[in-house]
Amino acid sequence: MKTIHAEAAQLPFATQIETVVMSTPLPDIHTHLYAPAFRELLLWGIDELLIYHYLVAEAFRYLDVPYEKFWAMPKPEQAGLVWQHLFLEHSPISESCRGVLTTLHALGLDVKKRDLPALRSWFAAQDADQHITHCMELAGVKKIYMTNSPFDELERPVWETGYRQDERFQACLRIDPLLLAWPETAVALARWGYAVEAGQPGQKTFDEVRRFLAEWTKRMGAAYVMVSIPPDFAFPAKNATSQLIEKCVLPHCREFGLPFALMPGVRRAVNPQLRLAGDGVGLSNLTALQNLCAGFPENKFMVTVLARENQHELCVLARKFRNLHVFGCWWFTNVPYLIEEMTRMRMELLGLSFTPQHSDARVLEQIIYKWQHSRRIIAKVLVEKYSILAQTGWQVTPEEVERDVQGLFGGGFERFCRK
Ligand code: RAT
Ligand code: ZN
Q: How many helices and strands, by DSSP H and E, does the chain display?
């Protein structure tokens, strides 16, 4: 790594740090992207970029088309409407709109022409596989962590018929239906040959759920087990969610040495008519997380929370529990204003022992803008922090800057996973 940034050492201090932050390769530890083996599940191209659910939610602020009419349209028509309302009839200043333009610009496309058909032609001419590598290079992403659900009807068959490993992608086991919709999931598990009991889960069910988790962890080669949870999540509690976590997920993670990733704060389907764009945010009671970290010191928890108001409490919890790794500025917090606030607060409370960002990309090219935007902010905060140290006479060397940035960009996370 030293050689990559050797030239940076010749530059003025702030520029040196920016150069390192902008160019250090990193793993993107949570996305919704898929390896090419999953075929149409890997979304890419201008139409997909325009109908990203973050943009659809914004477009409906201006659109007067009925929801169902919009969803019945073919994707290019939906994309055309989003383009019309969010880019042509209003200036595209929101973070998600700006992201489309950053992405196109980085790919060498001329955004000032505002020529949607020309953009479509450019994307149509790309070779998908080379395009993945190109986007990863532009984003400085060396590994894309996927979100893999055995409960997804389109995804499961790919795993069952033998997924062809792709070095650029890392699987992660997502289990929301198991923990959040037990009665329906019990039926599915029974159908797939797991002898789970109906009703309140008992020991036999716990054993079978662990068998299910073990099989899928091995099949996927999963790096961690993951769930997003609503604001009212409580632990311990007398419900199936709490019992399944304690009796199945935590022992499973201990056995396989995997972190359990928790993403608290999402209120699903606040407006169901918006479909994927219809989820909201709520303040979580992080006592549940405190109980998990304190009660299960042999387990590792990686956590990002959705509510801005929970960010400080999360940092304080991480100061108390070294089995808690804070990561990312998730979804509604992934806007420059909050990324800067959260990154500064995390550095001030946790030093360098956290992972500042993940992309959550759903469309391949989004990794370009999400990382470019975040890296700039992380660089700005780091420059400020090192400058404050310099006022005391403490000087960081270029090697120390590289070490610190590598720690933030995957090094600390990988150490946490290995522990
Ligand atoms: O950020 C998103 O795209 C959300 O829709 C969610 O998928 C969220 O990131 C999650 O993983 O639950
Ligand atoms: Zn996500």
A: 20, 10
Which atom of ligand 1 lies closest to the CA of 334? 1
Domains and CATH numbers, the chain: 6-41+122-418 (3.20.20.140)
Its sign, for the CA torsion 1, 303, 42, 211, is: positive
**What are the phi and psi torsion angles at 298 (to 5°)?**
-85, -10
Q: Is the CB of 331 under 6 A from ligand 1?
A: yes
Strand partners, 141: 26
Determine whether 418 is exposed, middle or buried from the number of CB atoms within 10 Å of its CB (0-12, 13-18, 19+): exposed
Question: CA-CA distance, 24 to 19, in Å (whole number)?
Answer: 8
CA distance 279 to 310: 18
Residues of the chain short of pLDDT 70, as ranges, are 1-11
**377 to 8, 21, 336, 342: CA distances (angstroms):** 19, 10, 7, 11
Give the rounded distance of the alpha carbon of 158 from its chain centre. Answer: 22
Query: Is residue 326 within 8 Å of 304, Cβ to Cβ?
Result: yes
Provide the CB-side half-sphere exposure for 178 (13 A, CA).
27
Please name the residue whose Cα sits nearest to atom 1 of ligand 1: 331
Q: Are 265 and 231 in contact (CB under 8 A)?
A: yes
Cα–Cα–Cα angle for 183, 286, 331, rounded to 5 degrees: 80
Q: How many angstroms is it from 31 CA to the middle of ligand 2? A: 6
Tens digits of per-residue pLDDT, 205-254?
999 999 999 999 999 999 999 999 999 999 999 999 999 999 999 999 99
Contacts of 300 (CB under 8 A, 6+ apart): 253, 258, 259, 260, 323, 325, 416, 417, 419
pLDDT digits (tens, 9 = 90+) for 393-419: 999 999 999 999 999 999 999 999 998
- For residue 175, give the nearest of 117, 217, 125, 131 by alpha carbon: 217
H or E, element range at 364: none
Q: Please work out whether the CB of residue 304 comes within 6 Å of at least one atom of ligand 1.
A: no
Closest CA to 47 of 95, 116, 132: 116
Instruction: Give the pLDDT confidence of 104-121 residue by residue, as tens digits.
Output: 999 999 999 999 999 999
Rounded Cα–Cα distance for residues 139 and 373 (Å): 10
